[in-house]
Amino acid sequence: MVLEKLRLDGPPRRVAIVTGGSRGLGKAMAISLAEAGADVCIASRTVAQLESAAAEIEAASGRKPLIVPTNVQRSSECDDLVAKTVQHFGRLDIMVNNAGIGDARGAGSRVWDLSDADWLDTMEVNLFSTFYCTRRAARQFIEQGGGGVILNVASGTALRGTPNSFAYAAAKAGVIALTKSMAVMLVGENVRVNCIVPGFVAQRAPRDDEEVAALQARGRFNTARRLGEAWELGPLAVYLCSDASSYMTGESIAIDGGGLAGGIAPTGFAPAFEGVGAHA
Fold first, then answer.
1. Of these residues, 132, 168, 239, 247, which one is catalytic?
2. pLDDT by residue (tens digit) across 217-273?
3. Residue 102: CA atoms inside 13 Å, Cβ hemisphere, count?
4. In this structure, how many other beta carbons lie within 10 angstroms of the beta carbon of residue 183?
5. Nearest by Cα to 88 from 65, 114, 58
6. Is 247 part of the annotated catalytic residue set?
7. Among 118, 111, 115, 184, which Cα is nearest to 150's?
8. pTM
9. What superfamily would CATH give domain 2-278?
10. pLDDT tens across 141-158, in order?
11. What does the DSSP assignment read for 110-155?
12. Angle at 30 between CA 246 and CA 36, to 5 degrees
């Protein structure tokens, strides 16, 4: 019975959208959802990355995903993403709001130096997109008669002081607040809303010795003395999107190697490389 509750192959087979699904945590969660039996649509801006990720998902699960190039900063494209998914698969059951950017544009900026454009960009990708996709998915769930899952992705930076990532931290704190409020709002529609709060996660293999050393340095400052791996979020995503978690809504669950429980050094103590360590 327990394993059956974790299955997503129905009937009816669940249909999931994963934003930011072409790499890193999003790709890992998409693979896990497909392996559990869901039909999956992955969205990101870059077609080549989407095609590569789709091949990996199909190889791992035997299920061919839909790819929809999407700029989640535009609400109209988020609406189109849901519409195209429903047109292709016939329904929508799960929306995973994973798309995000760190403080790459404003990394290391002091509050008095960060530009309006960099602040707004961080908010649009991390927070506004979560609202846009949740709004459209909720409408679809209600049109289908109710029932569905929203799974958001926040960050441990939202729950502790992080001097070099204050814009990102603020956006992700908004995601956690949105999760709680939307969960209460949508419970009457049988829609559950939860949130994963990752710690430092290696999203790809390091390219050279310098990156290896940087990742090891980050890991030593974590309670678990290592970084997480992207695949480790997959089983949690499956649980939160399945009937096994039917009594859970409004929760934000940390998966961070004990980083929040035991403490972790502030960001900035070691170099960060694009796509290697993120969601801290």
1. 168
2. 777 778 888 889 999 999 999 999 999 999 999 999 999 999 888 865 554 433 343
3. 23
4. 19
5. 65
6. no
7. 184
8. 0.91
9. NAD(P)-binding Rossmann-like Domain (3.40.50.720)
10. 999 999 999 999 999 989
11. -TTT--HHHHHHHHIIIIIHHHHHHHHHHHHHHHTTS-EEEEEE--
12. 55
